[in-house]
Amino acid sequence: xxxxxxxxxxxxxxxxxxxxxxxxxxxxxxxxxxxxxxxxxxxxxxxxxxxxxxxxxxxxxxxxxxxxxxxxxxxxxxxxxxxxxxxxxxxxxxxxxxxxxxxxxxxxxxxxxxxxxxxxxxxxxxxxxx
Amino acid sequence: xxxxxxxxxxxxxxxxxxxxxxxxxxxxxxxxxxxxxxxxxxxxxxxxxxxxxxxxxxxxxxxxxxxxxxxxxxxxxxxxxxxxxxxxxxxxxxxxxxxxxxxxxxxxxxxxxxxxxxx
Lengths: 130, 119
Description:
The structure holds 2 protein chains of 2 kinds. By secondary structure, chain A is α/β, with parallel strands linked by helices. Chain A has a single domain (2-128), classed as DsrEFH-like (Hypothetical Protein Ychn, Chain: A). Chain A is 37% helix and 20% strand. Chain A is built from 5 helices and 5 strands. Chain A has helices spanning 16-29, 60-71, 79-85, 90-95, 113-121; strands spanning 2-7, 33-39, 75-78, 107-110, 124-128. A 5-stranded parallel β-sheet of chain A has the order 4-3-2-1-5, with helices on both faces. In chain A, strand 2 (33-39), helix 2 (60-71) and strand 3 (75-78) form a beta-alpha-beta unit. In chain A, helix 1 runs parallel beside helix 2 (60-71). Chain A starts with a strand and ends with a strand. In chain A, 41% of the residues are buried. By secondary structure, chain B is of the alpha/beta class. Chain B has one domain (4-118): DsrEFH-like (Hypothetical Protein Ychn, Chain: A), CATH 3.40.1260.10. In chain B, 29% of the residues lie in helices and 20% in strands. Chain B contains 4 helices and 5 strands; from the N terminus they run βαβαβαβαβ. The longest helix of chain B has 14 residues, at 18-31. Chain B is globular and about 45 Å long. The mean pLDDT of chain B is 97. Chains A and B meet through helix 3 and helix 5 of A and helix 1 and strand 5 of B.
């Protein structure tokens, strides 16, 4: 089956990012396809490379980047939600005249069209959030 | 390819960003020519309440967006009868014309759709 995944919550406070990661890992292991992971609402906070969790905790952001590298996963951060919450790549930094960017490896910033297109091209949308 | 998309709005308009950010997804879905329906359940029915005044909470009042949906060919709006009744709301209290559905009818509505967005 071909999935598109939507992640609506940031890391650590809520189990959303963990459940989404575990679902995707399991789906890929079973031979399913994950067309795209779309991060919306506070879910865009999964894409900052500046998180520094304690050594004995899981690193949610690194985990996403590693999964993306291993499976060529398309991790898309919603641009409108990201601008509100301070998640920027270098291009957005320059465009918005900010002094830093923080997008983690394996993520890209794009629009909501990526969610709708993904929904059209997939068999199923699975939403993680509360 | 056109899919039947149901946007389920479950939360009050303010307090979280879900309602506001759901509107963007609806408009993009319309731009992609998808077959769009909106369903308001639980506290989501408050999103459609007329005469909202947000000055006291320093939030943008975006309830006019629902009236503008018609211009984007978003015309199928449904609300939960149970949610309305529990909150003392009548159809005349809402900013747009809606179809009121029982929980059983909502079950059928969900079955009819290819995709369910949840906010």
